[in-house]
Amino acid sequence: QVQLVESGGGWVQTGGALRLSCAASGRTFSTHSMGWFRQAPGKEREFVAQISRNGVFTYYGDSVKGRFTISRDNAASTGYLQMNSLKPEDTAVYYCAASIRSGADALGAGDFAYWGKGTLVTVSS
């Protein structure tokens, strides 16, 4: 069992930056891969980024490649999403998720069994 809590969302102007955090409870964080997804109003959930349980492999959605960086600190049981060069289309609720799979290969949303409640990111134009 993994409980996840996101933080760090807020309002930022186009071109700005935010860092989201995903705090995991328990002592099992290092055995799970971690991902970030987002959902804008009226739109489907979209894959943002993924990191393997050992932090070696990362994957990004096409819309955020080169701008976002996913990382993790297993000693702190915390994952991060650094978001730079933000655009209005990045506006969404961002969700942290964890998977029992290693994450060495790209995963789908269905592979993530544990989800946080989300944090809102609003990018103004």
Write the layout of secondary structure elements.
Blueprint: E1 4-7, E2 10-13, E3 18-24, E4 33-39, E5 46-51, E6 58-60, E7 68-73, E8 78-83, E9 92-99, E10 114-115, E11 119-124
Parallel strand pairs: 2-11
Antiparallel strand pairs: 1-3, 3-8, 4-5, 4-9, 5-6, 7-8, 9-10, 9-11
Provide a quick synopsis of the model:
The protein is an all-beta fold and 125 residues long.
> In whole angstroms, how far apart are the ends?
40 Å
Largest sheet: 7 strands, mixed
What is the SS-derived class? mainly beta
Q: Average pLDDT, to the nearest integer?
A: 96
For the secondary structure, the number of strands is 11
Description:
The chain has 125 residues and is an all-beta fold. 0% of the residues lie in helices and 47% in strands. It has strands at 4-7, 10-13, 18-24, 33-39, 46-51, 58-60, 68-73, 78-83, 92-99, 114-115, 119-124. The strands form 2 sheets. Strands 2, 4, 5, 6, 9, 10 and 11 form a 7-stranded mixed sheet that branches. A hairpin with a 6-residue loop joins strand 4 (33-39) and strand 5. The radius of gyration is 13 Å and the shape is globular. The termini are far apart. The mean pLDDT is 96.
What are the key terms here?
seven-stranded mixed sheet, four-stranded antiparallel sheet, 125 residues
